[in-house]
Amino acid sequence: MAVSSFHRVFTFECRSDPDFSSLPSTENLRNNRRHFPAAGLSVAFYGVSSPILRFPPNFQRQLSTKARRNCSNIGVAQIVAASWSNDGTGNPAAGAPPVPAVASAVDATTAPLPLDLDAADDKNVVAAVENGAVQTNRSSYSSFLKSDASKTIHAAERLGRGIVTDGITTPVVNTSAYFFKKTADLIDFKEKRQTSYEYGRYGNPTSTVLEEKISELEGAESTILMASGMCASIVLLMALVPAGGHLITTTDCYRKTRIFIETVLPKMGITTSVVDPADVGALQSALEQNNASLFFTESPTNPFLRCVDIKLVSELCHKNGALLCIDGTFATPLNQKALALGADLVMHSCTKYMGGHHDVLGGCISGSTKLISEIRILHHILGGALNPNAAYLFIRGMKTLHLRVQQQNSTGMRMAELLEAHPKVKRVYYPGLPSHPEHELAMRQMTGFGGVVSFEIDGDLHTTIKFVDSLKIPYIAASFGGCESIVDQPAILSYWDLPASERAKWKIHDNLVRFSFGVEDFEDLKADVLQALEAI
Q1: What start and end residues bound the annotated signal peptide (predicted)?
Q2: Contacting residues for 274 by C-beta, under 8 A, at least 6 apart
Q3: Phi/psi at 352 (5° precision)
Q4: What gap in Å lies between CA 85 and CA 422, rounded to an integer?
Q5: What tens digit of pLDDT does each residue of 338-368 get?
Q6: pTM of the prediction?
């Protein structure tokens, strides 16, 4: 009898060791033993509440998709038998002690479990391999997850996931490698006739859930995770810009990205054009005069929150044979859909809004399967894999992403208006303000403007330091997008190694403040900011 035809199956039961004090005699054990030749199992019913099954190696891979679950992400568990009889009816054999009926069986890291085990089509849970990365079929989520708020919670989990479990939360699979039952299975995997994981650097079931969740939010075919946002930027640039190629980027961007572009890429013969985020004419000239492979830009940018017309520049790039990648970290997938606007790729430092709790590092890139596959090949060589424990923290953090971003959008907008009206504030940079140079563009392509507000104090370096030091709620720290408010002076935090004249080239003046508003009460933040302004 094939295992998948059984009506009752196995499950893990995590419990304390059973009481063997009342074991029957050896003869009774022999009489009560049942044998399942098709599965290669022998089960002794000892009269204890949970008799233990011994599985042959990799037995769980023989079980049907509809018969698999595990109880936890802990490697060892005690296994309980279902009340099968020799005739397969499900009734105990004569004279055998009753065995508690149990629900299901185990799975390690194969195909995900459908929501409705009896009615779901197998096609909804079939996994695919993309350069060693296992991916699941997400086609059915659109039927019942209409909003991003629901997707942040349920996408890649509610209809099944790479780790099959009865638990509501996705478990952590802490493993560095995955085994194959026999060499023939390994060959089938290598020749793409079998789906599996192979090595921890190439993929992990916990990470796959996060990748699929982000893909669902971005409307992407595929997503790849990396150990940090900076790691994602570097691997993307190295994978898509060939040696001797040309890259276009913008004046306003994260400094470490600029350093990599200016100091490392030239060693590979890669040249770069730098344009203002809103200067479409300069971008068009750079595309026409150079055989550019990629236009890489943030939108909004760091720290001035400049916005790029994604729809327009994507058309220009594609007309000239270049790809467009948007770093949407400041926007989040909730406030801006870069791929829908025409970008080929969108990346995020997941460390910021996605994680949202200032406790985990990570980065991601989303786009077409073709482009992500190219990036994945280099990523597997270079390493920089996201730890599965970090993936779990991101999955957890993203379940409140819509709530946090909603609050931060509101606080950011109200604080920007308050700061702009204050006499001790010289200038405010926030896309939601009509005074922002790309305000109308931001209104078209964004649904919210985030919790980061940059502004200039009406004073010098020391006046600005006094303002920052007078604040009681925010931490003076790097990063943004988390629950806790954070404040910094870019001239000190990010550019202090440069003289003031060099900082001025990038408009990083001594009185510039970048304030990331968290999810604290608005009135508390307002009072704190106002008292700090009064102190200067």
Answers
A1: none
A2: 248, 249, 250, 251
A3: -85, -110
A4: 80
A5: 999 999 999 999 999 999 999 999 999 999 9
A6: 0.77
Residue ranges and CATH numbers for the domains of the chain are: 401-535 (3.90.1150.10)
| Helix (H) and strand (E) counts in the chain | 17, 18
Q: What is the DSSP string of 65-99?
A: GGG--BS-SSS--EEE-----TTSSSSPPTTPPP-
Cα of 525 vs its chain's centroid, Å: 30
| CB-based contacts of 122, cutoff 8 Å, min separation 6 | 65, 114
CA separation for the pair 248, 250 (Å, rounded): 7
Hey, what amino acid is at 41? L
Report DSSP letters for 405-420, one per residue: HHHHHHHHHHHHHHHH
How far apart (Å, rounded) are the C-alpha atoms in residues 453 and 437?
Answer: 15
Q: Please, which residues have CB within 8 angstroms of residue 369's CB and are 6 or more apart in sequence?
A: 130, 221, 222
Contacts of residue 443, defined as CB under 8 A and 6 or more positions apart, other chains included, come to none
Question: What whole-number distance in Å separates Cα of residue 363 and Cα of residue 207?
Answer: 12
What SS3 state is found at 350? Answer: coil
3-state DSSP assignment of residue 33? strand
How far is residue 127 CA from its own chain's centroid? 19
